[in-house]
Amino acid sequence: GAVNDEVEIAVRPDLNIVATVTHESAAGLGLVVGAQAFALVKASSIVVVSDAEGARFSARNRLEGTVSRITPGAVNDEVVIDIADGVSIAAIITHPSCEALALSVGAPAAAIFKASSVIVGAPA
């Protein structure tokens, strides 16, 4: 685009995270094919889905996995989803949402987030 670049970060050969950054940021971080980079996503920016069969989403990132931990709180719960060997993602959702989704350890779930919610960094 005229203002933004789309960046794909390979977490593993079969797992990519898509981010949208400005041209200036991409240049300043030295983002070129093959460069090292990392992705950060705020836990409250992640939507947790427990049954998305047939559903379509506009968000570019959809990481499927298994719930490995739920830390309940009075208002919000932290839900950790194991995506792949050694790769997990934490989401903060409301306690009633966690109950409504019937989330439990070992249950399948997906973490969904927009490319614009990803913060990209590069090692110094």
Could you characterize the architecture of this molecule?
The structure is a single chain. The protein contains 2 helices and 9 strands, in the order E-E-H-E-E-E-E-E-H-E-E. Helix content is 10%, strand content 50%. The strands form 3 sheets. A 5-stranded antiparallel beta sheet has the order 4-8-5-6-7. Strands 1-2 form a two-stranded antiparallel sheet. It starts with a strand and ends with a strand. It has helices spanning 23-29, 95-100, and strands spanning 4-12, 15-22, 38-41, 47-49, 61-71, 76-84, 87-94, 108-113, 118-121. It is mainly β and 124 residues long.
At a glance:
This protein is mainly beta and 124 residues long.
Question: What's the layout of helices and strands?
Answer:
Elements: E1 4-12, E2 15-22, H1 23-29, E3 38-41, E4 47-49, E5 61-71, E6 76-84, E7 87-94, H2 95-100, E8 108-113, E9 118-121
Antiparallel strand pairs: 1-2, 3-9, 4-8, 5-6, 5-8, 6-7
Quick tags:
124 residues; two-stranded antiparallel sheet; 10% helix
Largest sheet: 5 strands, antiparallel
Query: How many helical elements?
Result: 2
- Our estimate of the beta-strand percent is over 45%
- The computed structural class is mainly beta
State the distance separating the first and last CA atoms: 27 Å
Average pLDDT over all residues? 94
